[in-house]
Amino acid sequence: MTTPGSAFTTAQPLIGFGQVRHTRLKPARNAFNYPTYFLMLPMRSLHRPTDTEPATRSTLAHNRPAALSFFDRDHGDGSDNALQWLDRLLLREGVEDALGEVWLHTYPRVLGYTFKPVSFWYCHRTDGTLRAIVVEVNNTFGERHCYLLDEPQYGQELTADKVFHVSPFCTLEGGYRFRFLHIDNDGLKKTVARIDYDDAEGPLLETSVSGTLEPVTAASLRKALWSYPAMMFGVIGRIHWQAFKLWCKRVPFIRKPKPPEIFVTR
Q1: Domain-by-domain residue ranges, the chain?
Q2: What string of DSSP letters covers 103-147?
């Protein structure tokens, strides 16, 4: 059963264990499927410590070093409060009613290192309904761009023109198709984020990240670290390995264009 917001019924930080899937359809087919884990964080509650259980606050390393941690400055403008950055971004874009909880789907730092190809900010109204989704994208050239999806719905296909260079094996033509699901099936909570990319000739890439959610506890953090001790190093390593495979398959290499002048694409 898929119900909007049903996976987010408490303000407790969550961790998801699941898979990343990626398939390139042309001019040469290339596909991979890797196990992964990620954080799902209630950002307003994290920045209001009294709203979060003391045990959770001590378990999740927020803006402090740990084997597995989360730092606000890895997002947005690099400040120590990424929620303030997000609120300013939303107001500049005319989104004035996303005053409810903001859930951030993102990778943590592991042993002090992180690379976040994409993070998703689920911005809700005070009544719990979804108001906007901000898709925050980083490329391996140290650049960042955001796509703002206005008035989205879970399960609905959402679109945006591609304006930001990510892969040297893709042009800037075409656009993205997004689909987000939050599933609560008899207490088993799961999230799915799908991003498909179409060029001028049709579908080119199919990508998704999914996972089953559970509370952040000392036990769940140990499971993440013991099961995938070098996950974040693996993320960047696999990106370069897949790029090498595409090069070997003679997929055309695209020179990096200038980044877009506007930071947010609607």
Answers
A1: 14-265
A2: EEEE--EETTB---SEEEEEEE-TTS-EEEEEEEEE-TTS-EEEE
Distances (CA, A) of 4 to 72, 127, 191, 215: 26, 12, 11, 19
- Location of structure tokens 């930071």: 263
The DSSP code for 2 is B
In DSSP terms, 159 is beta-bridged to 177
H or E segment and range at residue 247:
helix 231-248
**Rounded-to-integer distance, Cα 170 and Cα 161, Å:** 14
> Residue 139 pairs with which residues in a beta bridge?
none
Q: Which parts of the chain register pLDDT below 50?
A: 1-7, 51-52, 55-56
Each residue's pLDDT tens digit, 116-143: 999 999 999 999 999 999 999 999 999 9
Q: Closest Cα partner for 130 from 5, 2, 3, 45?
A: 5
- Cα 235 to the chain's mean position, in Å? 13
Q: Could you give the C-alpha distances from 84 to 95, 137, 156, in angstroms and in order?
A: 14, 18, 28
For the stretch 140-185, pLDDT in tens is 999 999 999 999 999 999 999 999 999 999 999 999 999 999 998 8
Claim: this prediction has a pTM higher than 0.85: yes
Angle at 36 between CA 57 and CA 112, to 5 degrees: 50
- How far is it, in rounded angstroms, from Cα 68 to Cα 139? 22
Closest CA to 108 of 26, 228, 208: 228
